[in-house]
């Protein structure tokens, strides 16, 4: 079916119309050749020859477009439009002069040709074939990508959606898919590619700073002695290097990548198109007063025999306004589209940055600031694109309009311009005040959102201790400061808007008054008055939006600075973990030293994940990694979506995962089963349920390496035993995978393959459980102490865990007795030989 549709699309009969017109032009050329001397003029033969050539070329072009599945062509539309318009005069001549009585053959040939031309022009307003739609898509593709050129010019492709919105409220199912160029999957990689180039351009300025810090670290490591233990954390390195900051490093911090430069390079082509459309639109806007002046002059003089000039001027004014409006609408549409592109791109970039930033950036960037960057600052970048659209040609439009006014009413226009100049000092003061107030406003907004986030995270504690009034007062204090700044900004915006909204009327009044009062011979006639008013109307839009332009530019400067600062912060180094497929070990840390003040257990996992800064050594990992944190986190989605986590749904694997992770019983409790909506942070799930969902998410991912950070701490003992046996243990679902289990539950140790003991940030012992217990080293001593303390409170323990602890005590007791007997035997032997 798809092949048949493609052949039908590429092998249609529409392009034969061009060949038929070429044949008719050839017939007309033959008729001229056998006709009278007047019809055999060189101009007539040349015209028919050009028609034949144009029709043949258009047939070839149409055929190629169909083979390439091009649904519409502006060249074809304008060709048929100009051909139809130009043949209006011959058609009028044939009908009015009744030339069909003299040459019926030429008349029939022309009428057939003209009918085909008009039909072809009408058919260009329709798309001949719609591409077959994929039934798996929930939404239809955007009709803009497949509409005809006339529909594109008039925005007719939106009619269906607007009619739907007129009849009822628009729902999500009514919306179309975004065009490919507008999707974040296309925009974000393009932005990140240019952003990385910009970072590389500025990297030499930062390499000096990193080199100074690295030299200090290398000297420190060169003095360290070799040891059999493996250093994982080294707190002194971070403190030592942080105390040595060179002047070169401080100067390098001032050189950051430029977000504005990246955006300009990303949008320069589309913005040039937008600028050209706006410039041509302004040109037609300026032509309207000129044509109006010529029309008034024509009506005043009424020259005989030149009636056609009046018709031409009227039609020209109409077409000028139509073309101006059409070009302006398309330029505005493109500018708005560019703004939306940048907003979506920056939101995705900030979100991506929040996931990849290193620990120092996490400490400086709060949640409130990141939320403001994505909601407020990204929106201001979108708004400034419209401002740039207006500001791109406003100076030229203003200068040309003033020049035309000078030629119309003379030097009096400069008095009005002087009035505008007087507004500049006031404008400069308002701009400086707005810039500082906007910066303070965003700081208070960040503080307020940060406090809101802290309150929501600790709402249980606030309710427990009845701290709501005090925190409400803190929020109120910040909000009052924010409102005070907003009030000042509103006053300044009102002052500026009042000034520039009154400017066009004051300029018109002052200019006309100066022109009339400057000289008694100056009289405003109809031509000067209407042309001047028309030119003042040209000046009115730039002056009306000038205050908003200044305000948005100020806002965008602050937002660009904030976004630039955040995006230029350091990320986690991708080289922290090497993806070496030739390595024998699936996961290895060789002579690794990392910097990050934290607890040891999660620090080991973070080092293997690349979340810690590596000072020296190598971390190698083969394949994909799944991580189960100690504190499970949930998405505000269904339970199924939380487990799938963007992966395709495979029923057999999904059901097996639910069974092994002890979630089937929970699904019977939930109202909608696995389709139950999980609230924010899993509020409608217990701690054990959230932990089991977290384990199921990792199991369903089918990764190569699993990093498990005490995943069974929040579940009941019998559930934990079942999950360990069915999933983590040697006979579980992950038995063929590499599993790193960080746990404080010593009762799991007899069932693991290898035990790694960490002490003071270093690996002190490693081996199987039996080897470490038989060795009777620090690990065995720790187990003795721990199990002795547990034995004293064994009545409060879970029976299953108590049973495991009992077996472990028996094993340790046998090892201790064997060691004691060996010591006694050795002592007796020494006494015997002595």
UniProtKB/TrEMBL annotation:
Q: What is this protein called?
A: Uncharacterized protein
The answer to keyword Repeat applying to this record is yes
User: Which residue numbers delimit the ABC transmembrane type-1 domain?
Assistant: 279-555
Query: Where do the record's region annotations for Disordered lie?
Result: 202-227
Q: Entry's InterPro entries?
A: ABC1_TM_dom, ABC1_TM_sf, ABC_transporter-like_ATP-bd, ABC_transporter-like_CS, ABC_transporter_C-like, P-loop_NTPase
Ranges of residues in domain ABC transporter: 558-785
Keyword vocabulary terms for this entry:
ATP-binding, Membrane, Nucleotide-binding, Repeat, Transmembrane, Transmembrane helix, Transport, Vacuole
């Amino acid at each position: 079916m798809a092949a048949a549709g493609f052949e039908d699309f590429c092998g249609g009969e529409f392009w034969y119309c061009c060949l038929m017109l070429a044949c008719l032009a050839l017939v007309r050329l033959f008729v001229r050749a056998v006709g009278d001397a007047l019809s055999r003029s060189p101009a007539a033969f040349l015209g028919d020859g050009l028609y034949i050539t144009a029709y043949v070329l258009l047939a070839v072009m149409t055929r190629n477009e169909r083979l390439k599945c091009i649904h519409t062509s502006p060249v074809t539309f304008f060709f048929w439009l100009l051909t139809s318009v130009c043949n209006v005069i011959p058609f009028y001549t044939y009908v009015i002069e009744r030339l069909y009585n003299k040459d019926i053959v030429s008349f029939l040939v022309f009428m057939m040709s003209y009918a085909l031309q008009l039909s072809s022009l009408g058919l260009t307003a329709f798309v001949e074939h719609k591409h077959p739609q994929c039934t798996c898509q929930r939404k239809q593709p955007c009709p803009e990508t497949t509409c005809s050129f006339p529909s594109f010019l008039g925005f007719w492709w939106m009619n269906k959606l607007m009619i739907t919105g007129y009849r009822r409220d628009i729902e999500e199912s009514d919306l179309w898919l975004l065009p490919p160029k507008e999707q974040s999957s296309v925009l974000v990689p393009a932005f990140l590619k240019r952003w990385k180039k910009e970072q590389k351009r500025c990297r030499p300025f930062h390499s000096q700073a990193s080199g100074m810090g690295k030299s200090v670290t290398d000297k420190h490591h060169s003095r360290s002695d070799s040891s059999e233990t493996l250093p994982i954390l080294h707190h002194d390195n971070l403190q030592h290097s942080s105390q040595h900051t060179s002047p070169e490093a401080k100067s390098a911090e001032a050189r950051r990548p430029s977000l504005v430069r990246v955006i300009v390079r990303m949008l320069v082509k589309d913005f040039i198109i937008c600028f050209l459309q706006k410039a041509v639109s302004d040109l037609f806007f300026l032509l309207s007063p000129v044509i109006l002046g010529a029309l008034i002059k024509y009506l005043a003089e009424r020259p005989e025999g030149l009636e056609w000039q009046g018709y031409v001027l009227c039609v020209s004014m109409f077409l000028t306004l139509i073309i101006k409006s059409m070009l302006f609408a398309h330029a505005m549409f493109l500018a708005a589209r560019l703004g939306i592109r940048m907003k979506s791109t920056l939101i995705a970039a900030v979100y991506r940055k929040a996931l990849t930033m290193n620990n120092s950036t996490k400490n400086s960037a709060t949640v409130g600031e990141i939320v403001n960057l994505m909601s407020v600052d990204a929106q201001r970048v979108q708004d400034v694109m419209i401002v740039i659209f207006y500001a791109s040609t406003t100076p030229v439009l203003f200068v040309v309009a003033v020049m035309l006014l000078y030629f119309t009413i003379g030097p009096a226009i400069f008095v009005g311009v002087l009035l505008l100049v007087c507004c500049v000092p006031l404008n400069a003061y308002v701009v400086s005040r707005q810039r500082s107030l906007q910066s303070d406003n965003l700081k208070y907004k960040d503080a307020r959102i940060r406090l809101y986030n802290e309150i929501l995270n600790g709402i249980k504690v606030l309710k427990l201790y009845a701290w709501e009034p005090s925190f409400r007062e803190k929020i109120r204090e910040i909000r009052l400061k924010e409102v005070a700044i907003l009030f000042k900004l509103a006053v300044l915006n009102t002052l500026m808007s009042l000034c520039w909204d009154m400017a066009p009327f004051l300029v018109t009044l002052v200019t006309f008054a100066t022109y009339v009062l400057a000289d008694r011979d100056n009289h405003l006639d109809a031509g000067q008055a209407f042309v001047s008013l028309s030119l003042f109307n040209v000046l009115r839009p730039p002056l009306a939006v000038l205050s908003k332009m200044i305000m948005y530019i100020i806002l965008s400067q602050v937002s660009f600075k904030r976004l630039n600062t955040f995006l230029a912060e350091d990320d986690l180094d991708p080289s922290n973990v090497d993806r070496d497929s030739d390595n024998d070990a699936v996961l290895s840390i060789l002579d690794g030293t990392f910097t990050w003040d934290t607890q040891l257990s999660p620090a080991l996992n973070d080092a293997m994940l690349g979340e810690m800064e590596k000072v020296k050594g190598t971390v190698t990992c083969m394949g994909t990694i799944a991580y189960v944190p100690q504190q499970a986190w949930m998405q505000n989605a269904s339970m199924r979506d939380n487990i799938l986590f963007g992966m395709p749904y495979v029923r057999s694997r999904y059901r097996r995962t639910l069974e092994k992770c002890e979630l089937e019983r929970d699904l019977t409790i939930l109202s909608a089963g696995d389709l139950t909506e999980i609230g924010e942070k899993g509020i409608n799930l217990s701690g054990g349920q959230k932990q089991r969902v977290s384990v199921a998410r990792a199991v369903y991912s089918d990764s190569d390496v699993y990093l498990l950070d005490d995943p069974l701490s929040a579940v009941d003992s019998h559930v934990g035993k079942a999950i360990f046996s069915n999933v983590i243990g040697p006979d579980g679902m992950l038995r063929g995978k590499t599993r790193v289990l960080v746990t404080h539950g010593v009762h799991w140790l007899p069932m693991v393959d290898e035990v790694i003991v960490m002490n003071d940030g270093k690996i002190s012992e490693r081996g199987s459980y039996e080897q470490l217990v038989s060795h009777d080293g620090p690990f065995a001593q720790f187990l003795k102490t721990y199990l002795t303390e547990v034995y004293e409170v064994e009545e409060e323990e879970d029976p299953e865990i108590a049973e495991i602890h009992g077996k472990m005590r028996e094993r340790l007791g046998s090892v201790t007795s064997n060691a004691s007997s060996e010591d006694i035997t050795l002592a007796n032997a020494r006494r015997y030989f002595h």
